[in-house]
What does this fold into?
Amino acid sequence: MEDYQHVHNFHYDEQQRRKIQNPEQILQDIGIREGMSFVDLGCNDGFFTIPAAKIIGNTGRVYGLDINQQAIDSLKNKLQSINYKNYQLKCAKAEEMVFNDGIADIVFLGTVLHDFMDPLKVLSNAKKLLKNKGILVNLDWQKKDTKLGPPLEIRFSAKYAANLIEQADFKIKSTANLSKLYYLIIAE
It folds into this structure.
């Protein structure tokens, strides 16, 4: 495996992705609201980060982390284009870096947990990021062979992902199948 975050050749086209995922609805369903702080680990160029920034407004704060500097630069430009100013972006490995402890109401992993070199370390870092009563949200691909998405062999089943999340000292609040393609795990 190569030493970078996205280890497969699958890449999203945002318009195509919006046909199968509605980021605004997903964020609303997990309880994001104005004034919250939201950390997007493996944020890419902001498919979930931008809608989160719009929902939480300038009284909230958005944090984005990705290993791809071009994605971080693109996200920064997008945030600036909507005049959103309350953000912090970093290009780094989630296994090695944590923003400040206790900053997040929500730590979000959007179809990326299977991509990290050490997912348990990423989850442990996510735990440190959360405020008291904060939540971890893991949205990921079902472990089924589909036309879209990463190769089946690197996908995590919901059961496997939940086990990893529990190993990182989280308590699972809910697990749901969002569609034939995705599941969603919420933990505290």
